[in-house]
């Protein structure tokens, strides 16, 4: 569907008014929007759609006097830290790693905050940009930013998970809203390096259910005869209250050896209930350069036991990056490989409205007929 009226960019870096950025309160250094991407998506009570857009704000002059600088939140103000250029590796444009012998230590080239962008019910036009409701770091475990919101509506409340980044930990935090627009931070729900936590849009057996994606430096090999490839994969967890989580014993979605996108897999859109089961869109990554190629696939999980995978479409991608969409802003691109990162879904009647981050640069909307998932 790429290139049609049903596949378009809706929000771009140039749409961000950085004069209204939370960083302006205390940071005098010139910045720019490196990306406006990976939006959470939900439908508001008034029928409009809401994107919760990740704004990655970066310094215009990151390197001064042989040192690379990064932005950090503190309770008093936004501050700058710097590292000697000869002490870092800058192969990935999104981050740099410190050349230290014991552990892989990273710093970011931008600080992320979340901007609510209200759309028309069909997702084709912007209604309002709610700078007054922007979500910025608010605790030491978010000192390097909040990233990649996912929003699920459950029992008339909106639950939003985000990745919170700091030197203390790389964790998942939860916000809750009563109207889909104003969110209150509830704190940490998953600890270090568990990304892509996404709540199902509805309970299973009276309990909250979520996709998770634990990360680590070591993974163990499957037997040669196994169809699975080792590496990051999608697990499941359940909770009585959305705050305290127990992983399910059975594994979830794993990369398969036959798939080109099995380097790692992770959750994308919140699983939504259909008459066939829980439908979710997830991402798979093909090894290519420092970042990899990201594509979107889909799966169907059992309604009563989501650890049972009823259908897994991991060969032909549901969505791939489309350079034609970002051609007008190609001069702002910084990733060397194609990336589409699906992060939200909403019911549109005979179709689904799907929100993705395109090229870690802009917000993409795709209208997918429900017949595709029959």
Automatic annotation (TrEMBL):
It comes from Sphingomonas oleivorans. The keyword Transferase applies. Gene3D superfamilies: Glycosyl hydrolase domain, family 43 (2.115.10.20). The keyword Zinc does not apply. Transmembrane segments: none annotated. One of its GO terms (molecular function) is hydrolase activity, acting on glycosyl bonds. Belongs to the glycosyl hydrolase 130 family. Signal peptide: none annotated. Keywords: Glycosidase, Glycosyltransferase, Hydrolase, Transferase. InterPro entries: Glyco_hydro_beta-prop_sf (IPR023296), Mannoside_phosphorylase (IPR007184). Pfam families: Glyco_hydro_130. This is Glycosidase.
């Amino acid at each position: 569907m790429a290139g049609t009226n049903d596949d378009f960019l809706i929000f771009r870096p140039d749409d961000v008014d950085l004069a209204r950025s939370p960083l302006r309160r205390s940071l005098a250094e010139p910045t720019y929007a490196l990306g406006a991407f990976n939006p959470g998506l939900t439908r508001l009570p008034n029928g409009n759609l809401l994107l919760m857009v990740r704004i990655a704000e970066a310094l215009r002059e990151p390197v001064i006097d042989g040192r690379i600088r990064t932005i950090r939140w503190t309770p008093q103000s936004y501050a700058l830290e710097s590292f000697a250029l000869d002490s870092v590796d800058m192969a990935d444009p999104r981050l740099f790693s410190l050349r230290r012998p014991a552990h892989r230590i990273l710093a970011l080239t931008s600080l992320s905050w979340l901007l609510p962008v209200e759309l028309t019910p069909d997702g084709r036009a912007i209604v309002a940009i709610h700078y007054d409701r922007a979500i910025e770091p608010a605790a030491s475990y978010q000192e390097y930013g909040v990233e990649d919101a996912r929003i699920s509506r459950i029992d008339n409340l909106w639950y939003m998970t985000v990745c919170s980044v700091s030197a203390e930990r790389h964790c998942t935090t939860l916000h809750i809203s009563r109207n889909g627009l104003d969110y209150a931070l509830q704190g940490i729900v998953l600890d270090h390096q568990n990304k892509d936590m996404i709540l199902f849009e509805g309970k299973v057996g009276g309990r909250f259910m979520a996709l998770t994606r634990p990360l680590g430096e070591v993974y163990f090999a499957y037997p040669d005869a196994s169809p699975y490839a080792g590496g990051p994969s999608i697990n499941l967890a359940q909770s009585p209250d959305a705050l305290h989580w127990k992983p399910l014993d059975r594994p979830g979605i794993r990369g398969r050896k036959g798939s080109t996108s099995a380097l790692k897999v992770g959750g994308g859109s919140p699983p939504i209930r259909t008459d066939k089961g829980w439908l979710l869109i997830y991402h798979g990554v093909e090894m290519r350069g420092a970042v990899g190629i990201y594509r979107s696939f889909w799966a169907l999980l059992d309604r009563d036991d989501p650890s049972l995978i009823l259908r897994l479409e991991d060969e032909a991608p549901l969505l791939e990056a489309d350079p034609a969409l970002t051609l007008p802003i190609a001069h702002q691109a910084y990733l060397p490989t194609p990336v589409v990162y699906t992060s939200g879904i909403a019911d549109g009647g005979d179709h689904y409205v799907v929100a993705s981050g395109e090229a870690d640069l802009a917000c993409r909307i795709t209208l997918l007929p429900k017949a595709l998932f029959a």
